[in-house]
Amino acid sequence: MKEYAEQNCNFYKEELLKLQNLDTTNYSESDVNIIVNKMKFYAYLIDIYSMESQVEWLYLPDKKIKMESISDLIHFENLYGSTIYEKKEYKEQVEKN
User: Fold this and answer.
1) Which residues, in sequence order, are bridge partners of residue 58?
2) Strands 57-59 and 64-66, how do they pair?
3) Coil, strand, or helix at residue 12?
4) Is 50 exposed, middle or buried (0-12, 13-18, 19+ CB in 10 A)?
5) What is the pTM of this model?
6) Which of 22, 42, 62, 74 is deepest in the core (most CB within 10 A)?
């Protein structure tokens, strides 16, 4: 999983660089807006894939789980926010997803 995350991260970094280096002098305002939105989306994907390649465990309020995919990261971050990255001690045994 981590190797795919790193590959995807590198791919979107290259794509973002291409867009950043694009000469938009003769582009319409709507075309520039489309490019800016693509750049924002690529930056978001880079953040997600970077996090996926670095994070192994997610710390939920009641248990610690091993992250299996990027969808785990997105799902639990939407539920609990960035607190899922803060290491915690639990009374119970570690549970896997």
Assistant:
1) 65
2) antiparallel
3) helix
4) middle
5) 0.64
6) 42
